[in-house]
């Protein structure tokens, strides 16, 4: 992925019958990576897909696109190896779902993936602090996990400086995907510059 602010496309609201085609379209429109939300029907009520879909998408798109998997599952430990084999670059798990985040982080690294941690809107940012030096990404949810198309919770923004934005519905529903991706990137860059000046 290029440096600076990154824009990831959440495929949650994609047409799953044309997932590869829509993913290519979004990458060609400027998305930096694909954000794949894996749900098991336990951590959240919705079920999406698991490693066979990730593997198929990797085969169709090749090795270049960066796949960040958000594991919205009750037992993230059980999916590390299958997702690594399927072609995931980053394994992002909900801190609220893991009984032993340290062991899980180590397992993810041992399986050749980068580690991301995600917290729900109601979880305080302090829960991420002990893991800051062991992870590639901290994701602060600005919607409740499990459903696309929700209203953005702007009161989550003070929790962390953003250098990556994950968006699905706004991009997928836009008439001009390249424009909306560039807008998100510019807003992210301007906010990052403001934060660095304020320090």
Main features:
ribulose-phosphate 3-epimerase, 7 strands, single chain, 199 residues, TIM Barrel
Task: Report on the architecture of this protein.
This protein has 199 residues and is of the alpha/beta class. The protein has one domain (6-198): Aldolase class I (TIM Barrel). Helices cover 32% and strands 19% of the residues. It contains 6 helices and 7 strands, in the order βαβαβαβαβββαα. The chain has helices at residues 19-28, 51-61, 80-86, 101-110, 169-172, 177-198, and strands at 6-10, 33-39, 66-72, 90-94, 114-119, 137-140, 164-167. A 7-stranded parallel β-sheet has the order 6-5-4-3-2-1-7. Helix 2 packs parallel to helix 3. The protein is globular, with a radius of gyration of 16 Å. The two termini are 27 Å apart. The mean pLDDT is 88. Its EC number is 5.1.3.1. Homodimer.
Class by SSE composition = alpha/beta
At the third CATH level, what is the topology name?
A: TIM Barrel
Helix fraction bin: 25-40%
Quantity of strands, as a count: 7
> How many helix segments?
6
Radius of gyration: 16 Å
- Give the amount of beta strand, in percent: 15-25%
Enzyme class: isomerase
Family: Belongs to the ribulose-phosphate 3-epimerase family.
Subunit structure: Homodimer.
Cofactor: Mn(2+); Fe(2+); Co(2+); Zn(2+)
Helix/strand layout:
Layout lengths: L5 E5 L8 H10 L4 E7 L11 H11 L4 E7 L7 H7 L3 E5 L6 H10 L3 E6 L17 E4 L23 E4 L1 H4 L4 H22 L1
Parallel strand pairs: 1-2, 1-7, 2-3, 3-4, 4-5, 5-6
Short description:
With 199 residues, the chain is α/β, with parallel strands linked by helices.
């Amino acid at each position: 992925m290029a440096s600076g602010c990154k824009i990831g496309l959440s495929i949650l609201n994609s047409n799953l019958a044309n997932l590869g085609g829509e993913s290519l379209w979004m990458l060609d429109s400027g998305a930096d990576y694909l954000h794949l939300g894996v749900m098991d029907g336990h951590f959240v009520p919705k079920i999406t897909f698991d490693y066979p879909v990730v593997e198929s998408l990797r085969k169709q798109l090749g090795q270049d696109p960066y796949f960040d998997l958000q594991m919205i599952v009750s037992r993230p430990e059980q999916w590390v190896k299958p997702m690594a084999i399927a072609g995931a670059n980053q394994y992002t798990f909900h801190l609220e779902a893991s009984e032993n985040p340290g062991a899980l982080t180590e397992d993810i690294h041992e399986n050749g993936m980068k580690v991301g941690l995600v917290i729900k809107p109601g979880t305080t940012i302090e829960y991420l602090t002990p893991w800051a030096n062991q992870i590639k990404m901290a994701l602060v949810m600005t919607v409740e996990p499990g459903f696309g198309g929700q209203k953005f919770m702007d009161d989550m923004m003070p929790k962390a400086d953003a250098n990556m934005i994950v968006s699905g519905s706004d991009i997928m529903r836009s008439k001009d995907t390249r424009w909306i991706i560039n807008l998100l990137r510019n807003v992210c860059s301007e906010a990052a510059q403001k934060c660095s000046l304020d320090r």
